[in-house]
């Protein structure tokens, strides 16, 4: 029960990693506040959290909207009275195009959600996090570790998010707040399963074959699942990581070494 009695706010709650983060935090003893734009999805995950015996507060939130984020903070404090952790998991995939060809306006929109919204939301929670000597976890990506074609805009956004986390760690550390990053690679969840099915159809093979070919590039020879990624965030939110801040923990099964 690494998070026993703690309140953790999670943005970008969806059927994959967002759900995994909520359930693993709850299993570790936390009450959770769930934020996303899709109310139906929020309630589905909230029911699963409550089935584990923990409190769940679902707040429909657009993290790009200041008023919406301010409402999230108010409802969190009204419901729970304090906040011990914030996980910035909300994400909008940037355009997957070469930097020489991409629409700069599309890159800018990606920054709005992936970087600037995370900054704004974190700043709103700072007073509560300082009061609890809490922790922030930014969900990043293994794109930090490569520069493959068409991934330039994606890497730009995630590199900026890493710089944001490190800068906040320096600024908030003296006030007792830790800020860390996790960088997942492949995540074996519904979106990726759909993509592998698509690739299998295009190649005239099976999704299992696509999986095996991908897993062959990973030291553990398998793709991490959402709860495995989430457990890394639980660790960083917990007292076991009380001397860790400003760090980026890769959670990729050994696909990249850093």
Automatic annotation (TrEMBL):
Gene3D superfamilies given for it? NAD(P)-binding Rossmann-like Domain (3.40.50.720)
- Check the record and name the SUPFAM superfamilies matching this protein: NAD(P)-binding Rossmann-fold domains
Keywords from the UniProt entry: Oxidoreductase
Q: Does the keyword Kinase apply?
A: no
* GO molecular function annotations of the record: oxidoreductase activity
Reading the lineage from the top rank, the first entry is: Bacteria
- Can the keyword Transcription regulation be found in this entry's annotation? no
The record's annotation in InterPro entries points to: NAD(P)-bd_dom_sf, SDR_fam
The protein's name in its UniProt record: SDR family oxidoreductase
